[in-house]
Design brief:
Helix content: 25-40%
Number of helices: 11
Strand content: 15-25%
Shape: globular
Radius of gyration: 29 Å
Number of strands: 24
Length: 722
């Protein structure tokens, strides 16, 4: 099926997370919030500072080391390798022992001038260097996938990376910090070596690699074992979420059970024996190892202790004058599911994810449902692909055997192979149906508990809508579905404030459900979709916290935009003509320039009196009509710089109408989140490779809910003088 240029779909957070998976917020030097980057293999991310900490959580003891490389990536000698035997170099320090959790300290400014690269290495302890009774897995494929996090000195996460897809490797290059044009970045590598550290170091250009690898393992074995305290993961990340309703189908579970659904399971091996290399999926979420207990505080000095413990008795580590109290939680704990009979999964309840508020718990739960559905369908497709490849292999064997060509022996073998294929597919379908039934039950429970910002337009919660006093965490823009699970919709939630603009594609779609029969159908439906999304944005912000402008150069959308005009929620009537377009774009461009200068100059409190501090949305209909070259450049500027300074775009346009601009507008389209007015499978999931079908959040024909919501928003705006 042909597609327009694809839009990358992350989790329900939509823009930039994604790829998905619950990035946590951190605060940068300028006080602005940024999202933790979740890297995939080969992806890079800029580093905001030079003093860093690299945290490793492997679930099994590993040896951590680091190498310095020159501009070509070559390690000049053993003195450029930090390892348990030589743990400290200039600007770099690693652990002295093999442990499941490591913290590496890096000061990029203190590195040698000739060092342009820092590689973080992980290796499993060798059998010779491992002490008796402490034998671990012999390859990374038999252990939980290592998880590496880059943080600043305050502990705020900058980027993290899960090393998936490892099998026979015993050493791996996890991350690379590199300098490019004076700026440092981090890149996810994930390059493994079955030959261990010796092969890895040889590949880095070290002639003494075998002897150095032996020295590293011996030094790690001599050092006393220690378990480093693992910092807690952010509450908004998927790693904190406790899932009870759906059996995970990819990645090892925290208790060490083998992964389910990532390839042929025990039932496959029982019938065929070991099938060899099993299909795996990039981006599978590994189970998180149990967090290590924090190291106890040292005992108080004897002089300050009220009494010494008896000889041989336990030592009291508590401070003699410190009284500990348990702070009351700011929000009630997540609701607990009712007791269920033994052997049956717990009935899902809304809000069973972690979070400080019900809003955050529901957001994280929706994200967990997205993960579960993606993994379940990926496991099903993997199982079917394995069954198909098995069938093809067995049929080839039958054809290659001359004895099977005579008599009915060949027919019997082919029928037997097809029967086994059908049994394997049926098993995969059975597992999928079981998981989908649980997900459908959870989706039903969650849907009924969603607040207005997360709910569908036909939800009863809109009948009691009140203008919020603060902005919610996210906003629903539609639903996401997969072909194998069309009856289980996942709400598509995007984080607020919007981090990128929205593009409502008014061109022809190739979906079979497209109701448009003429060239004007998609354009009208696209503008109606834009009005529905605008109403959601207005309803999600406090009174006076969101201002909407509209540009309709040809006036062709006046009838649809009249809903917003009649309600009185627009800052001014829609601008028409080239002059009107230029006036609106100039005002918003100057606004972005002013706020940008104030923020960068540290004078955000010095904006002019009466300056409108609300966030701004510009609806652009029927682009590029009425736009000259200057207006196009201003529009591109607003798309690039506007979201960071409170100005957002909503484009209603057909890309084919802009073909005359050539590649000039390609960055504009790539910077916007493409949505469609009808169901379309244009959203790509880079995590497990799914193509998700997006369904827009539209108002049911004949419903008055949109008009009532806009009236309440307008009344709230008038009450604050807007």
């Amino acid at each position: 099926m042909g597609r327009r240029p694809g839009t990358t779909c992350g989790p329900p957070a939509g823009d930039g997370r994604r790829a998905g998976r619950g990035g946590a917020e951190r605060t940068g030097d300028a006080g602005e919030k940024a999202m933790t980057a979740e890297l995939v293999r080969g992806q890079n991310h800029p580093l905001p500072g030079t003093r860093l900490e690299i945290r490793v959580s492997a679930g099994t003891p590993v040896v951590a080391a680091a190498t310095l490389g020159d501009a070509e990536g070559k390690v000049l000698g053993a003195e450029w390798v930090a390892h348990p035997g030589t743990p400290a170099l200039s600007g770099l320090e690693v652990s002295r022992q093999a442990t499941a959790d490591h913290r590496l300290a890096v000061d990029l400014d203190a590195l040698p001038d000739a060092a342009h690269r820092v590689d973080v290495l992980l290796a499993l302890p060798t059998a010779d260097a491992t002490r008796a009774g402490r034998r671990g897995p012999a390859r990374f494929g038999a252990a939980a996938a290592p998880f590496v996090t880059v943080t600043d000195l305050s502990g705020a996460e900058i980027a993290h990376y899960t090393l998936t897809g490892l099998d026979a490797e015993t050493a791996v290059i996890a991350l690379e910090l590199y300098r490019r044009q004076g700026a440092w970045k981090v890149r996810a590598i994930g390059q493994g070596y079955a030959g261990g550290l010796a092969e890895l170091l040889t590949d880095r250009g070290l002639p003494e690699a075998p002897s150095l690898a032996r020295v590293i393992h011996e030094a790690a074995a001599r050092s006393p074992a220690r378990q480093a305290p693992t910092p807690p993961r952010p509450s908004g990340s998927e790693g904190d979420r406790t899932r009870q309703a759906v059996t995970p189908v990819l990645g090892p579970d925290p208790a060490g059970a083998p992964p389910q659904g990532a390839g042929p399971g025990p039932e496959y091996e029982a019938e065929y024996g070991d099938p060899g290399a099993k299909p795996t999926l990039q981006g599978a979420d590994p189970g998180q190892p149990a967090p290590a207990q924090p190291l106890p505080s040292p005992p108080p000095p004897p002089a300050r202790s009220p009494s010494r413990p008896p000889e041989g008795g336990p030592v009291d580590y508590r401070h003699p004058r410190r009284r500990t109290t348990t702070p009351a939680p700011s929000q009630p704990p997540p609701p607990a599911a009712s007791p269920t009979p033994p052997g049956r999964p717990a009935r899902p309840v809304a809000g069973d994810a972690n979070g400080w508020s019900m809003d955050e718990r529901l957001y994280n739960q929706v994200w967990g449902m997205f993960e579960d559905l993606a993994r379940s369908v990926a496991a099903y497709r993997s199982g079917v692909a394995f069954a198909d490849s098995r069938l093809e292999k067995e049929l080839d064997q039958v054809l290659s055997d001359p004895r099977a060509r005579v008599g009915g022996q060949g027919d019997t073998a082919r029928e037997s192979a097809r029967a086994r294929h059908e049994r394997l597919v049926a098993r995969a379908q059975e597992v999928l149906d079981r998981d989908l039934a649980q997900l459908a039950t959870e989706a039903e429970a969650v849907e009924a508990a969603l607040p207005p910002a997360y709910a569908r337009w036909d939800s009863p919660v809109w009948h009691g809508y009140r203008v919020p006093v603060e902005m919610p965490m996210a906003l629903r823009l539609g639903d996401l579905r997969l072909p194998e699970a069309g009856h289980v919709p996942i709400p598509m939630l995007v984080r607020l404030p919007l981090e990128r603009g929205l593009w409502i594609d008014s061109g022809h779609t190739e979906s079979p459900g497209d109701p448009s029969a003429d060239a004007h159908g998609p354009r009208s439906l696209a503008l109606e979709t834009a009005v529905a999304h605008t109403a959601r944005l207005l309803a999600a912000h406090p009174a006076g916290g969101f201002t909407v402008h509209a540009v309709d150069a040809a006036g062709s959308g006046a009838r649809t935009l009249a809903r917003l005009v009649r309600a009185g929620v627009l800052a001014a009537p829609p601008a028409v003509g080239a002059r009107g377009v230029a006036d609106v774009l100039t005002r918003l461009t100057q606004r972005v320039d002013l706020v940008q200068m104030a923020v960068r100059g540290g004078a955000a409190d010095s904006l002019p009196p009466g300056f409108d501090t609300s966030r701004q949305l510009l609806i652009v209909h029927d682009f590029p009509r009425g736009f000259d070259d200057r207006a196009v450049n201003q529009l591109r500027y607003l798309a690039d710089e506007g979201p960071s300074y409170g100005v957002h775009l909503m484009m209603v346009a057909d890309r084919e109408d802009c073909a005359g601009y050539g590649p000039l507008l390609d960055p504009l389209w790539r910077g916007l989140l493409r949505l469609t007015p009808v169901a379309d499978d244009h959203l790509a999931d880079p995590w497990v490779g799914h193509a998700w079908t997006y369904e827009p959040a539209l108002v049911t024909p004949g419903s008055q809910v949109l008009a009532r919501v806009l009236d309440r928003v307008a009344a709230a705006r008038r009450s604050v003088g807007r």
